Amino acid sequence: MTELELILTGQTQSHLHWLSNNIAIHKDMLSAFEQLRAAAKTAGLELTIASGFRSFERQLAIWQNKFSGLTPIKDASNRVVAIAQLTNLEKINAIMLFSALPGASRHHWGCDIDVYAKNLLPDQQALALEPWEYQASGHFYPLTLWLAEHAKDFGFFLPYDKFRGGVSHEPWHLSYLPLSQHYQQAYNLALLAETLANSNIQGKTQLIALLPELYQRYIVNIASA
Ligand SMILES: [Zn+2]
Prior knowledge:
Layout: H1 3-8, E1 16-18, E2 24-26, H2 30-42, E3 47-51, H3 56-67, H4 88-96, E4 112-117, H5 131-134, H6 141-150, E5 156-157, E6 173-176, H7 177-186, H8 189-197, H9 204-219
Antiparallel strand pairs: 1-2, 3-4, 4-6, 5-6
Helix pairs in contact: 4-9, 8-9
Bound molecules: zinc ion (ZN).
């Protein structure tokens, strides 16, 4: 695989700048992110990254744990899905509402981040990264409003701005367009198929058979910037 293909599928860390022990972002996004954070601060929002780069291995572990039932799978109403009663196809769709296929997460690219406002999180409350926190009665609503107005000034957009029949609405997920549009154009179905074929992902045979459909429904089905 080329260096670009390794970046696209989460199999290298050569493109990253580490902000802390566990959070890294694309090195060419650092300056834009710092400007975004500084502007948010003047608006009274402590913009904080909950999740930046995620490797193929990490995304694979998330997948395997959900597919095998070790981690509960939630539905759109935040209820746990009873996976024992599901076919493999139903299970794949249930997982992909909230979790990307390894090799197909925009978090592999380093230019996509999940953010929240640290100072708006109530004491004693854990961050859930669920839509209600960002909606009109939720504690992060001021951040939602601010991002809707200002994120684009710094090159960021929200690829999961609403539910489009694939990935759930993710009001916390920002993408840095100058980098992500380049990666998005280079990304393709054959690359994902090859990456999965070389892995030990659970549900592999069915996933590969369904891949063209999943690709359309979950991977390219995003907001236009
Ligand atoms: Zn995200």
